[in-house]
Design a protein that fits this description.
14 helices, about 350 residues, globular
């Protein structure tokens, strides 16, 4: 008769050792899984065969046209979304101050003769005013309540845009109110991923603060100190850009049903491995397109506002430019969210292609 071997029970000491070793074994298993997914190693040159991944995308301009075409096909839904976002922003946050805009205009008109000459004077003043508005805005420092409203409305519109595009591209007939009512369920996971994004932007923020301090102290006048500063600042900015490239995709992945923030961050990081630079260049192209479009829209609006104010002085009290600026900001935010979502869809579709 074969003997049945019984497993010897563990002693109390052995159970205690296993209990202590369990979290370390879990950390080791997670680290090994991470290494299996990510080919890069610190201070080692990664072979191209280990990180090269396909990413078939249209050209920069062609993909921007694809985003515009997609939004235009569903223009009624997204125009209602722009209108709703603009109304909510006006109610809870407000539009830019017309008084601030009038003060900026008066200052530029007083000093414009010293800077610009000839027929390009008005155009130069409008361009400088656009840069000033784009860098500082027309509103004073928002209150704590307004800051909360800005973050909440931004998250709500991001979620609504992603929800609408996901359903519209799937062939479902939905209305804007469907997205407004149904898209808010993953707002807490989205807020957590947004907090991660803010933390990842801290190095770039430190570079900006350091630049202001160095410029005020004369450190950037030249020499080795200026060169070392620019190298350090560039490294900090590159660090933030490296991190946030995948976090933009995580903001979309986290909206999937049953998705947790850390899992979304891990999935997004796996998606961009081997093609992070190409995705980052697309995002930078998106930001450049928003800036150029803003200049093409707002500079003529500023010129028209200046001309109408010269004809009718009472027009200076009409918040024409602040209203256009607010509408453009809302539209640009929705367009940017759509751009990132469609870029994410292209990456997913590329991964789904048979090898």
């Amino acid at each position: 008769m074969p003997r049945t071997s019984k497993k010897k029970p563990l002693t109390r000491t052995q159970r205690a050792i296993q209990y202590v070793k369990k979290p370390f074994l879990a950390i080791r298993a997670r680290a090994e899984a991470f290494k299996a997914r990510r080919p890069h190693r610190s201070f080692r040159v990664t072979r191209r065969r280990d990180y090269a991944r396909s990413l078939q995308l249209p050209g920069y301009i062609a993909f921007s046209k694809h985003v515009n075409k997609t939004l235009w096909q569903h223009k009624k839904v997204f125009l209602w979304l722009v209108a709703a976002y603009a109304v909510l922003t006006t109610i809870f946050v407000g539009i830019g101050s017309q008084e601030t805009y009038t003060t900026l205009t008066s200052t530029l008109q007083e000093t414009g003769s010293e800077i610009f000459e000839g027929n390009i004077g008005q155009l130069g003043q409008a361009a400088l005013l656009f840069v000033t508005i784009g860098s500082s805005g027309l509103t004073a420092t928002p209150t704590e309540v307004q800051q909360v409203y800005i973050v909440f409305l931004g998250l709500l519109v991001w979620l609504t845009t992603v929800w609408l595009l996901r359903n519209l591209l799937a062939g479902h007939k939905v209305k804007m109110r469907d997205g407004l009512y149904s898209a808010g369920s993953p707002i807490i996971p989205t807020m957590l991923v947004t907090l991660v994004l803010i933390v990842q932007l801290i190095p770039a923020g430190l570079a900006v603060v350091a630049y202001a301090a160095a410029n005020a102290s004369g450190l950037l006048a030249g020499g080795v100190s200026a060169m070392l500063f620019w190298i350090a600042a560039l490294l900090l900015v590159v660090m933030s850009l490296y991190w946030i490239t995948s976090t933009f995709f995580a903001l979309i992945i986290v909206t999937l049903p049953g998705m947790y923030p850390m899992k979304a961050l891990k999935t997004a990081g796996d998606m961009v491995i081997g093609r992070r630079l190409r995705i980052l260049l697309r995002i930078l192209w998106m930001l450049l397109g928003v800036i150029i479009t803003g200049a093409l829209v707002l500079i003529p609006i500023i010129l028209i506002s200046t001309g109408l104010t010269n004809l009718w002085p009472w027009f200076a009290n009409v918040p024409f430019v602040p209203t256009v600026l607010m509408l453009f900001s809302v539209t640009a935010f929705i367009w940017s969210a759509s751009y990132i979502y469609l870029l994410y869809r292209r990456v997913v579709d590329d991964d789904a292609k048979p090898a």
